[in-house]
Amino acid sequence: MSARLPVACLLLSGCAGAQSALDPGGDQAQALFSLFALMMWVCGVVYVVVVAALGWALWRAWRQRGADARGDGDATHRTDGRLRRLLPVAAGAILIGLTVLITGSFLADRALFATRAAPALEVRVTGHQWWWRIRYRDPASGGWTETANELHLPQGRTVRLVLESADVIHSFWVPGVAGKLDMIPGRTNRLDVTARRAGWYRGQCAEFCGLQHAHMALAVKVEPSDAFRTWLAAQAAPAGRAAGRGGAVFATVCAACHAVRGTAAGGRAGPDLTHVAGRRTLAAGTLTMTRGNLQGWIAQPQAIKPGTSMPAVPLTPADADAVAGYLAGLR
Fold first, then answer.
1. In angstroms, rounded to a whole number, what is the distance separating the alpha carbons of residues 317 and 323?
2. What is the CATH number of domain 121-236?
3. Integer Cα distance of 110 and 327 in angstroms
4. Is CATH 3.30.479.10 the classification given to domain 244-328?
5. What pTM value is reported for the model?
6. What angle do CA 143, 202, 140 make, to 5 degrees?
7. Could you count the other beta carbons within 10 Å of the beta carbon of residue 249?
8. How far apart are CA 177 and CA 223, in angstroms?
């Protein structure tokens, strides 16, 4: 018993948390959870019936041996007749179970992908190897605010996610908020999500997309509408930090690939870094956001995330420290 308890606790730990489909925090996740629960009940009943029938068949075989030993063959004949009469009942039960599952699946799909009027908020999510470009459309001006690797959603409001890929097939999946939908090069998919419970969730690319597929995570924060509007307004603002030495080095070495609004840096190959220090993680969930991790990522990105598009930048320790300090101030 003592050895089984830790194993059971370990298995149960996968049923909750920031990336659990069994802990829904949004309408779409709830629809999928309800379908899962229905399948578990139907399949569970079928499992119990099948195990009971197996046990009964074994008991019948044991009793048959006793009847053969006594020479009583009529008892077996009578039992076989009753079994034949039960076959239509069993077939009807199977048909009812399958019909329930098909109906539940149809209703869940209809709820997930029902045609709706365009929500007020549209967010474009583009998958790259191996990070996420995220752009929010301002409902008033129609302008776009770009960030990366961290998705914010207003609580209780439906948001339309426009999903695209810049290179290979990726798959957007935040199990606590919504279901999985592929991101295919040359094609645009749309997913409407309505998050109900505030908090942090974890998303993940769910389609193998190369060497660092496992390190293509997405931090998702659901927050009240007022807090979301405040956050989005802050993200739309340009960088409000004096450049100094770190900014000068960044403009010389890093600006070709990265953008920082309000400066001359306007690169598009890598993530927008305007407010990078305000994010929860670095390198698409690979590292927590700290000054030390920023400096380590700048100095040796290939050692931390082999195969990443960011090359090792030949900076002196003093310059790397200055750039890390500059980025750590971009909030």
1. 10
2. 2.60.40.420
3. 45
4. no
5. 0.82
6. 15
7. 22
8. 13
Return per-residue pLDDT of the chain as tens, 331 residues. 455 655 555 454 555 567 788 888 988 888 888 889 999 999 999 899 889 888 887 887 777 776 666 665 555 555 566 667 777 888 888 888 888 888 888 888 877 777 667 777 999 999 999 999 999 998 777 889 999 999 999 999 999 999 999 999 999 999 999 989 999 999 999 999 999 999 999 999 999 999 999 999 999 999 999 999 999 999 999 887 667 888 899 988 899 999 999 888 889 999 999 999 999 999 999 999 999 999 999 989 999 999 999 988 888 889 999 999 999 999 8
Separation of alpha carbons 131 and 249, rounded Å: 24
Annotated domain spans of the chain: 18-112, 121-236, 244-328
| Longest Cα separation, the chain | 102
Q: How far, in Å, are 121, 137, 256, 331 from residue 143 at the CA level?
A: 12, 6, 23, 21
Which two three-digit tokens encode residue 264?
């001359």
Rounded distance between C-alpha atoms, residue 185 and residue 173, angstroms: 17
Assess whether the region 121-236 and the region 244-328 belong to the same CATH fold. Answer: yes
